[in-house]
């Protein structure tokens, strides 16, 4: 595996991903989207400039959620002046290989994303629990465990960092083996995945079954379950690692399509949304909840409408549609949506969700 994946990216994983025994999988604020490591031949200015362009392109992939953003012709002039976005850098070396660690200015990158009209994927992203099984010509079917194929899992974790998507893997102890037996995993049984995932509380679940079809050909079927929706896709490659990497890449694409804030969404109903929060029992709750809503990339401004008891109403000016906003709010585990449906009056009128008569209701836990 390329030294960059082994050293530069995987080293960052310990700060990004928490072990399943410490905390459950959940939406996470990714703090190192703007930091990259590039292998360079020298400390010269030319190599610094070239590495800066490559590194900035990787940052744009992470913050836009678009793996092909480097092909955007409007971005090319920006990449050529990448050094203007560099906040700091330093060099390290290992095994006679020189590495350049680059840190880019988040605000400068965000401004450029806005100026170019590109999508912006906020850094609060769903934690995904990944279950993997394989069928090889030699050994048949088995569950893939990190302890058996650490090189594969290291590559997947590196790809996750590259795309800015936090991944976790089940420990595959007796509980996991009982709740997610091989047959259920190979069948991509969503109910089994829900049962087996209770101990991890993931935001999303990805099930992959990888098949060796010939000596040099592999293919995989994937099922991503998230927020009451299922996304099926496939991948192929010349090795198990390549096939799995492409699956993680497509998973990141699917999540980006759901959460990235697009400046000109066709089906977006933009404007004002009214949110009502219950359970705001203290001034600290009030400050935290308001700061959270004001900090959302999908929200351009907030206006506090009322505070009554433990309830507060806030008007949000949003740049996305209702579906995108609700998906984003669902990532905050302190917000709990009630099970009741939209308000309907005696005349059968259904008030629009997000309106003053039928606000988006949540409980702040």
Provide a descriptive summary of the structure in words:
- The two termini are about 45 Å apart.
- The chain has about 375 residues and is α+β, with helices and mostly antiparallel strands.
- It is built from eleven helices and 16 strands.
- The strands form four sheets. Strands 6, 7, 8, 9, 10 and 11 form a six-stranded mixed β-sheet that branches. The chain has a five-stranded mixed β-sheet with strand order 13-14-12-16-15, with helices on one face. A three-stranded antiparallel β-sheet has the order 2-4-3, with helices on both faces.
What key phrases describe this protein's structure?
six-stranded mixed beta sheet; single chain; five-stranded mixed beta sheet; 365 residues; alpha+beta; 29% strand; disordered N terminus
Kindly state the mean pLDDT as a whole number?
86
Low-pLDDT regions: 1-25, 265-269, 341-346
Number of E strands = 16
Oligomer: single chain
Quick summary:
33% of the residues lie in helices and 29% in strands.
Q: Topology, please?
A:
Elements: H1 3-16, E1 28-29, E2 35-40, H2 45-64, H3 76-80, E3 86-94, E4 97-104, H4 106-115, E5 124-125, E6 128-136, E7 140-143, H5 150-163, E8 167-168, H6 174-179, H7 182-186, H8 190-196, E9 204-214, E10 217-226, E11 229-237, H9 240-259, E12 271-278, H10 283-294, E13 299-308, E14 311-318, H11 322-330, E15 335-336, E16 360-364
Parallel strand pairs: 6-8, 6-9, 12-16
Antiparallel strand pairs: 1-5, 2-4, 3-4, 6-7, 9-10, 10-11, 12-14, 13-14, 15-16
């Amino acid at each position: 595996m390329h030294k960059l994946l082994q050293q530069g990216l995987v080293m960052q994983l310990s700060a990004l991903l928490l072990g399943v025994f410490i905390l459950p999988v959940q939406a996470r604020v990714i703090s190192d989207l703007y930091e990259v490591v590039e292998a360079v031949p020298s400390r010269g200015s030319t190599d610094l400039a070239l590495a800066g362009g490559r590194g900035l392109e990787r940052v744009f992939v992470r913050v836009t959620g678009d793996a092909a953003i480097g092909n955007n012709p409007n971005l090319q002039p920006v990449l050529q002046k990448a050094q203007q976005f560099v906040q700091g850098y330093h060099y390290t070396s290992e095994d006679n290989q020189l590495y350049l660690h680059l840190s880019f200015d988040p605000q400068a990158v965000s401004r450029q994303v806005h100026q170019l009209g590109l999508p912006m994927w906020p850094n609060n992203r769903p934690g995904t629990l990944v279950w993997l099984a394989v069928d090889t010509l030699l050994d048949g079917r088995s569950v893939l465990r990190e302890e058996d194929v650490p090189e594969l899992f290291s590559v997947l974790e590196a790809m996750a960092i590259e795309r800015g998507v936090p991944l976790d893997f089940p420990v595959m102890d007796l509980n996991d083996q009982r709740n997610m037996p091989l047959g259920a995993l190979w069948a991509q049984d969503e109910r089994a995945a829900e049962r087996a995932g209770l101990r991890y509380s993931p935001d999303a679940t990805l099930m992959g079954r990888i098949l060796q079809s010939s000596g040099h050909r592999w293919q995989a079927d994937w099922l991503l379950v998230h927020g009451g929706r299922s996304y099926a896709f496939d991948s192929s490659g010349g090795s198990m690692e390549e096939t799995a990497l492409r699956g993680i890449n497509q998973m990141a694409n699917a999540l980006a399509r759901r959460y990235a804030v697009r400046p000109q969404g066709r089906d977006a109903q933009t404007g004002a949304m009214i949110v009502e929060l219950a359970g705001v029992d203290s001034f600290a709750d009030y400050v935290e909840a308001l700061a959270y809503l004001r900090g959302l990339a999908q929200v351009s401004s907030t206006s506090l409408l009322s505070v009554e008891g433990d309830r507060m109403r806030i008007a949000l000016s949003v740049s996305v549609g209702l579906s995108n906003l609700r998906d984003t709010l669902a990532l905050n585990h302190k917000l709990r949506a009630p099970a009741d449906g939209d308000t309907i009056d005696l005349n059968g009128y259904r008030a629009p969700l997000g309106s003053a008569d039928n606000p988006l209701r949540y409980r702040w836990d």
